[in-house]
Amino acid sequence: MLKYIIRRLFVIIPTMFVIMVVSFMISRSVPGDPIQLEMEEQFARSGLLDSKVKDAAYAEISHKLGYDLPIFYFSLQAMAFPDTLHRILRLPERASLSKLISTYGNWNEIAAYFQLLKQVGKKAETLRVPPEEGASHLEIRRALEELKWTPKKEEICFQFDLIDSLAAQNAMLGENLKTDFQMLRSAFSAIEANATTWKLYVPTLSFHGLGNHFHKWLVRLLHLDFGISHSDHRPVIDKIKDALPWTMFMGFFSFAISYCVAIPVGVYSVRKRYQWQDRVMTVGLFMLNSMPTFVMALLLMTLFCNPEYFQIFPTSGVSSDGSENWSFFGRVWDHTYHLILPTLVTSYGSIAFVSRQMRVGMLETINSDYIRTARAKGLPENVVIWKHTLRNSILPVITNFANFLPALISGSVITETIFSVPGMGRLTINSIAAFDHPTLLAIFTLGAISTLVGVLISDILYAIVDPRIKFSKE
Amino acid sequence: MSDAQSHTAPDNTEPVKASPPTPTPSLRSLVVGRFRRNRVNLLAYRFVVVLLFVALFADGIAYDKPLVCKYKGTLYFPIIADYLSDLNIYHWEGDMFHLQWREAEFDWSLWPPVRYQAFNIDYQNQRCLSPFGKQRVENWKNWHYLGTTHDGRDVLSGLVHGTQISLTIGVFSVALAGLIGIVIGAIAGFYGDDRLRLSTAQIIFGLLGLVIGYFYGFQVRSTALGNAMTMGGISLLAQITIGCTLMFGISFGFIHLARTLHWIPFLAKRRIVWVDMLVSRMIEVFTSIPGLLLIITLMSIAEKKSISLIIVMIGLLAWPNVARYMRGEMLRVRNLEFVQAARSLGFKEVRVMFRHALPNSLAPVFVVLAFGVAGAILLEASLSFIGVGVPDKVVTWGSMLGEARSDISAWWLSLFPSLALFFTITSLNLLGEGIRDALDPRLSPNG
Description:
The complex is a heterodimer.
Chain A: H1 2-28, H2 34-46, H3 51-65, E1 74-78, H4 91-104, H5 107-126, H6 134-149, H7 153-169, H8 171-193, E2 203-207, H9 213-222, H10 236-271, H11 276-289, H12 293-304, H13 328-366, H14 369-376, H15 381-392, H16 395-399, H17 404-410, H18 413-419, H19 424-433, H20 437-465, H21 467-473
Antiparallel strand pairs in A: 1-2
Helix pairs in contact in A: 1-20, 2-3, 5-6, 5-8, 6-7, 7-8, 10-11, 10-13, 10-17, 10-19, 10-20, 11-13, 12-13, 12-18, 13-15, 14-15, 17-20, 18-19, 19-20, 20-21
Chain B: H1 2-18, H2 27-37, H3 39-56, H4 58-61, E1 68-71, E2 74-76, H5 78-86, H6 94-97, E3 108-110, H7 155-191, E4 197-199, H8 200-219, H9 222-231, H10 233-257, H11 265-268, E5 270-272, H12 275-287, H13 291-301, H14 307-333, H15 337-344, H16 349-360, H17 363-386, H18 397-406, H19 411-439
Antiparallel strand pairs in B: 1-2, 1-3, 4-5
Helix pairs in contact in B: 2-19, 3-7, 3-19, 7-12, 7-14, 7-17, 7-19, 8-10, 9-10, 10-14, 12-14, 14-17, 15-16, 17-18, 17-19, 18-19
């Protein structure tokens, strides 16, 4: 048994790794500059600072998040791309450079152009100009910034023309920067003239070792450090800690309820097989099974939370007003009372699923020889059903166990939204609305891990219940 | 299925002539017969047909212009004209372009039963009007039969056009998932863990080809792929297809090239490739990704929401389910006599797989496909319900239900879309179960 479990655990590792890679890739492809966002959050508290401090802060955050490292353990990319592109710290600049490379393929010329662009930018920034040229000065500085982010030729030319016309109008600026602008233009035309596009079609493989972004991300993930939420500057893990208990509470009870109801229902259905009770049950369970969650939730809500019909349950939330001052048991009862409807909504689906599975599984076994033997021995029907049949048809029911853990962790987006339960599902929806990608990815990653572990647990249970599985796999 | 029977038919002509006049019925007719015997199945089937009809002719049922009309002596087909103008073939002339269709004086006109499009906003009937309450309309023909939403959209028209969107998403995403799943599952099941033998050289070259193919298929074309993501589902799918074709094409090319090295004894040694194991691992990875969460995350990243994007995402996530069934059935079918016979006749493996084994193992996959359509429709409804699915302008069952949440006393807003969704899902599930029971009559009491 232990051997089987250990082997099963080994099999799960590559799968887990692939899921991590997927999750990481999504996190890298989120639009916008995560470092900038994180920085803005820091400065939201400390006020405005000058550009040097900002640069330092950017570098620090970039280092902390691992964006200053190569992406993966190895990279397969075109020969035109340098190994050291990740040393360009500013992400928009890096993106624009890599677009330039994938158009022209000559890193040397592009690097020279970019270096020049930075120098001219610095020079323009430090230049002292008479007040009447102030506006144009600002305009030129903005255009030079813009040039760092635009890989498109038309836009670059447009900015060049803008700068030239501004320099021509203003004596002081023109005098000081004219040659620099000329050099910039020639540097850009050098890129175009010496394009080596063939380099884009030659693959090169390079290894980066453990010092890469993915590794750093993975290590942080293993320390449960999911970064800082973009919506309220709190660590993501804290938000999850707040949300998880509600979801787990609901998940646990809904599973308890569904198994407590589903197994007797399945058994009853088999005892009355092919009679009208069974027919009614089958049809009812079938309809329950194909009833979408939110339809059920809306239905229950319209019926039981509506002053026009029966106002038995509260519409939303998990606690009544002023319940903070109640006694402990009072609060627990209050939460339970609020969570009855959402828990029912999350459990009816698995009630239907499990009892239908039970019925089919038991019908398959009930005609087998050993059941007939049990009956022939004179065992009462109850014993035959509960002891002999149920045991041998419990397998499909265990399958549902695989859903248990994911439901505990990621919760039900739909139900929690409808009933305003502040659990994980609701956190998901709020994160979408706030473009809070770190939180979303954390939830996604946790969900994927819990699915995997859930399947693992159900596989192990399978092996415990049915030893044949263990042997057949060996 | 019929394909396989038709090409095995010539071999059977002799025995059939000799056999008694009542030949054994084909599997197909048996299954259809068993399926039809159950009244509920037929009912579900008919309901699905009606749904398809509504989806196909949604514009003919609910539209804000007449089907046919005669205006100032000229005959118009406004709906067809609208289609043509969408395709830039036809353009509405000056005063027809600005015509207020609902108020215009026609010589005669034939209107669709519902005189609103799903996105039409009736400013006089806003704030959720009940179908039985007071509505401000000129005559009964403009009545909102099932009430209006908060913005003043017609609920019935939303239902009709929602059918179109739901079924489009259901059918096309499952078609995509089915295509991928059937091919991958068939390969995994047919070769299993024992049938594919490649030489060492071929394995090395194949892997090398995959890496290089990945480079040319995806890395070199990363800009195009990135752009496709913002352009919508169809271009994304096209780019992915091109990428995969390049990748696997190059890999196959390399495998063929490897034959030139077979004079080296070490490289010519044949080894087993565990195709089934690899595919099963892949399926495991895909099934452990929480689909709804992934789609929600991706949709929140995507710059432009579109229906085609949802279709592609659902399709790319749902194939493992199909592949699993296909693989299981293929593992069974590959050991049957007719496949063995085809193999021993010396046909190429690929031909045996796709012409002989595959058509005969499709039947159980149809069951998964029927359930898959139901699942996809449900997924789309959930996405629209929480407002991350379709573009904001598009009205679907899910988005109407989402609106109903803010006003639970407007029962018509939640009831009708709920019913539509419920009956659709139920009948698709019934259809799936019906086919399954018809294929495998062991479980039903009177089969």
